[in-house]
Amino acid sequence: MDAKAEALAAAAAVDEARLWSRQMAMAEIGATEKGGVNRAALSDEDRRARRLMVEWAGDLGFEVATDGIANLYIRLPGRQADAAPVVTGSHLDSQPRGGRFDGAYGVVGGFEALEAIARAGVETERPIDLVAWTNEEGGRFQPGAMGSAVFAGVLSLEDQLGLVDLQGVTLEDALAETLASTPGLEQRPFGHPFAAYVEAHIEQGPRLENAGTTIGAVTGIQGLYWYTVEVRGEEAHAGTTPLKARKDALKAAAHMVHALGGLMADETDTTRFTVGRFECHPGSPATVPSRVLFTIDFRHPDPAVIARIKPNIEPVCKVNAQGCAVSIRPTIDNAPLQFDPAVIDMVEGYAARLGHSVMRMPSGAGHDAGHINHLCPTGMIFVPCERGVSHNEAENATPADLAAGARTLAACLVDLANQE
Ligand code: GLV
Ligand code: MN
Ligand code: MN
Question: Which of 11, 145, 213, 361 could connect to 357 by a Cys-Cys bridge, CB 3.0–4.6 Å?
Answer without folding.
Answer: 213
